[in-house]
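Subject: Interface between my chains keeps coming out wrong

I've been trying for a while to get a sensible model of this assembly. When I model each chain on its own everything looks fine, but I need the whole thing in one frame so I can look at the contacts. Pasting all components below, labels as-is. Any help appreciated, I'm running out of ideas.
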Amino acid sequence: FKKQKILSDFFPTK
Amino acid sequence: MLEGKFEEASLLKKIVEAMKDCVSSCNFNCTENGISVQAVDNSRVLLISLLIEKDTFEEYRCDRNITLGVGLGSLSKIIGNGANSDYLTISADDDADKLNIIFEDKVKDKISEYNLKLLDIDADLLDVGPMDTDATITLPSADFAKICKDMKVLSESLQIIVTKDSALFQSVGDIGTGNIVIRPKTDIDHPEESVTISLDKPIDLSFGSKYLSDIIKATSLSQKVTIKLTDQSPGVFEYKLPSGYLRFYLAPKFDE
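Reply #2:
Try treating it as a single job with all components included. I did that and got this:
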């Protein structure tokens, strides 16, 4: 089973 | 004051069509260099980054940086009223609460003018910065759209595996499996049909099919799409504009 990551797992909030 | 005149309304139509099912509203940031947008879909999985450089426009001026909050569904309805070949001019005052949209028919003596109410949008911005890239694939955008559509019938995930001389698109689902392999190809007579793959490190990433379905709505913007992939990182899917780009950053799926 693959879990969907979200963008804030990779990019910091400005 | 912002004023930007597109040679053809079709370009802005295509841009809005490519974005509106992914994000309902976004801020258009206007500077002397052009117009940019960063917007994230509700599930925070897909990010859109748009840059319309000023050279894209027939005429462009922006005296002061302004931010225009736009409902994309509403904008789509209004610009749908113009013909593809019309000149399209967008303009707004510095403290505007509306965007002025004018279509000029190039043959008939006909000018259509609309106002779109602007929105106050408070959105967090993500710092995507420059990213390292392990593998870059460039292929005809229509081919990529077909791959995504074909693989979606099998599974809600699409696995992309890139090695030195090929890119494998793979779907594994309840009804069966599918594999599509593409290899580099140079077509001198039809350069838009060429496929290039450059690789620093082999890639094996999975993405949600439903987000890829949103991305391929940009297919009409460019004959080519460039896919930049990095291990354990979001994929970048870029459609070039005549001067600028529409980019999608898609967070991958990982094994639990």
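Reply #3:
Confirming on my end. Chain B has a mean pLDDT of 96.
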